[in-house]
Amino acid sequence: MKNDQKIAVLLNNTKANNNERINNAYNKKMALKTNCFKDREKRTFSYALAFYFIEGITFCILAHAGLLAPILTNGLMSQIIITSSIAGSVIVNSIINHIYNKKIKEVTGINNNKELDEKLIRNEILIEELENRNLAIDLRLFNNEDEEPTIKKTNENYEELKMKISRRLYDLDNATKRYFLIREFGDLFDRHFLFDKLVVNSLYTAFLTFLVFNAPLIGAGIETSLFNGIIAQFIIGAECGFLYNYIKIVKDKHLFHKFNDELYKDKLDIKEIKSKKCTNINVKCEIFDISKDIAKLIEQTKIVEECLEQTKPIKDNEIKESYNHELQDIKIVNSIMDEPLVPKLKPKK
User: Fold this and answer.
1) What rounded mean pLDDT belongs to the chain?
2) Is 79 within 8 Å of 217 (Cβ atoms)?
3) Of 17, 43, 167, 258, which shows the fewest CB atoms inside 10 Å?
4) Left, alpha or beta for 49 (phi > 0: left; psi -120 to 50: alpha)?
5) For residues 63 and 129, is the Cβ–Cβ distance under 8 A?
6) In the 3-class helix/strand/coil scheme, how is the chain assigned residue by residue?
7) Cβ contacts of residue 145 below 8 Å, gap of 6+?
8) Residues ≥6 apart with Cβ < 8 Å to 95
9) Are 244 and 198 in contact (CB under 8 A)?
10) How many CB atoms lie within 10 A of CB 5?
């Protein structure tokens, strides 16, 4: 078997290992998503909406039939409906969360809900890192220039190639993290986004609060006062919406800075994000360029091996054993799924 065929087999095996790790990370991601804050929020809202419709329709039917006490035929009934809907939703969601927590503990080993969002992001980043490493393998497998290898093409040995590949893998992982952080959290540093999140969304919440409070009363044909029926509900809804979005922005910024600090010297510059100098398009081009460099380094391993075979003739079985042993020392060929060497040399904060 020719050297390029041997490398192709090893790369395909590595790609298969990467795909297996992607599947495992994806399963963990889905398990974590079932109980992360965003999904818990969606479920709570969905259950509350179901309780609200059931209770609201029941209230309207009883009101038209004259079966309600006079004290309930005013804004108090709406408050009871809203409160009981939320309470019922919280109880149901707590039971479901308890069931999901057992599954999450089995899959991820996480006991603390505070770690869920961070662990979810780490799994999402890991998936994209492995996909980009597979991209480097594909560039080598399908875009090989078929150059004639000669001894003059490289004077590097396996150790030099190993360190070069490790550095480029480290760069590829960091570029992937930067791409993810800009995509998921870049809007947090955009003034227009913050205005929409804090002001416009708060107005939406105020309108929704007004609608939820008054819908049962309107359906029952009950009149409400201007202050209690409109103004008070708008104020309460706007305050709750602003507070909720503000807390979420603070939490997301904390996660961004935590992951960004882990990039050390490659960390994102907040000023460049705000000025749009650093965008996902720039980072995506960087990822592709790094992948091409890794593909070229893989090609050099084939050239070095061919040079070794020309200068060191041995028996076929010894060639196979030596060849596989040498390639196992090359990070990209056999252990692309492992952590690169360079992080061990990264500077202290």
Assistant:
1) 75
2) no
3) 258
4) alpha
5) no
6) CCHHHHHHHHHHHHHHHHHHHHHHHHHHHHHHHCCCHHHHHHHHHHHHHHHHHHHHHHHHHHHHCCCCCHHHCCHHHHHHHHHHHHHHHHHHHHHHHHHHHHHHHHHHCCCCHHHHHHHHHHHHHHHHHHHHHHHHHHHHHHCCCCCCCCHHHCCCCHHHHHHHHHHHHHHHHHHHHHHHHHHHHHHHHCHHHHHHHHHHHHHHHHHHHHHHHHHHHHHCCCCCCHHHHHHHHHHHHHHHHHHHHHHHHHHHHHHHHHHHHCCHHHCCCHHHHHCCCCCHHHHHHHHHHHHHHHHHHHHHHHHHHHHHHHHCCCCHHHHHHHHHHHHHCCHHHHCCCCCCCHHHHCCCC
7) 299
8) none
9) no
10) 10
Under 8 Å between Cβ of 168 and 290: yes
Structure tokens at 38: 């965003």
pLDDT at 343: 43
Q: Which amino acid is at 202?
A: S
Q: What is the pLDDT of residues 242-278, one digit of tens each?
A: 998 899 899 999 999 999 999 988 888 888 888 777 7
148-188 pLDDT, tens digit each: 444 444 455 667 877 888 888 899 999 999 999 999 998 88
Give pTM, 2 decimals.
Answer: 0.72
CB-count burial class (<10 Å; 0-12, 13-18, 19+) for 280: middle
Q: Which two structure tokens, joined as six digits, stand for 181?
A: 């952080």
- List, for residues 85-142, the tens digit of each pLDDT value: 888 888 887 787 777 666 666 666 665 566 778 888 898 999 999 999 988 888 877 7
* Residue 141: predicted pLDDT: 77
